[in-house]
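Dear Dr. H.,

I hope your travels went smoothly. While you were away I took the liberty of generating a structure for the chain from your last submission, since the lab meeting agenda had it listed for discussion. I wanted you to have the full record in hand beforehand rather than looking at slides cold. The sequence, exactly as received, is reproduced here:
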Amino acid sequence: MKGLRKLLGICALGLCTVAGIASAQSKSAPAFERLKTLVGEWEMKADDGTTSRNTYKLISNGTVLQESISGAGHEDGMVTMYHLDGDSILATHYCSAGNQPRLRAVATLDSDGEITFRLVDVSNRSPDQEGQIHGLVVRFPEENHFTQEWTGEEKNKMTTTIFRWTRKK
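The corresponding predicted structure, in token form, is as follows:
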């Protein structure tokens, strides 16, 4: 009888742990589902007439959203991977500068329909490297349009670049 109670107690503890993890993930699940609606091809025309492309696809059985940006100075592309991480979303940006900033969603799907990411850390950054990404805000103003505000540091000055994307496919 003692053995059965102990086994039931362990099972109950395990179920509480699993329920706690699912509950924590559910806080960011709606925002991650919104990011998943970006699957497809997007285009942006810069003021100078150049065109950039952004392609989104789901990988790893739908648990990771892969973003691939090319054009306008990034011909060989940059990749950002988004996935749930506990009660948040984690994004790792594989930058053309050769480093990999990791960003965590600090505000997800607020009343303006945006997701805000802030810098966690950077891997592969050399001491003499200038600049790095510090944040990202993704906004969804319309079904076939979205914007990204990338904030970075360059020569000890914070700058923000806004990309306005239009769905192609």
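Two observations you may find useful: Residues 7-25 have pLDDT under 50 and may be disordered. The longest strand covers residues 74-85.

With kind regards,
E. W.
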